[in-house]
Amino acid sequence: MKSIFNDITVDIASNGKIFTLTLxxxxxxxEVLHAVSGKLxxxxxxxxxxxxxxxxxxKRWVTVHGQTFVLTKSSGAHRSGHGLHHAAGELIAPMPGxxxxxxxxxGEAVTKGQxxxxxxxxKMEIRVQTPHAGKVMKLYVKQGQTVERxxxxxxxxxxx
Length: 160
What we know:
The chain is mainly beta and 160 residues long. The protein has strands spanning 2-5, 8-15, 18-23, 26-36, 39-44, 47-56, 59-64, 67-73, 90-92, 97-102, 109-110, 115-121, 124-129, 134-139, 146-147, 152-157. The strands form three sheets. The chain has an eight-stranded antiparallel barrel. The protein is globular and about 45 Å long.
């Protein structure tokens, strides 16, 4: 299986509870120690990691250390996609939750990887980060607002 992972194609092979992930020339070994209700206890290259997973058909949202990634199955052709990126620079909510912090305003220049918003969902803190440098064209949410899965949160335009 190939997945788009933050605009990177990842080959994933599974042998029961052990997964081998290959990205670029790096191989990562992940073992599922325990899985219950969307929470995975993993051993990744010898280090204990807790991941939270939710899915919706072909998409899986994976949150590790407060960062959320969207994994989608690839047909073999490279797809456009980046973490919480939807279309035309729109960043979307990975799951229902409440906006806990808004760190940007419309018209503001942002840098790649900058945390724009923080959403609390299922007792997890999800940082919504920009996939590229640009300018905040439209901010669709405010602090304290409840959001639904795949709701547009912010639109980032090219350039600054």
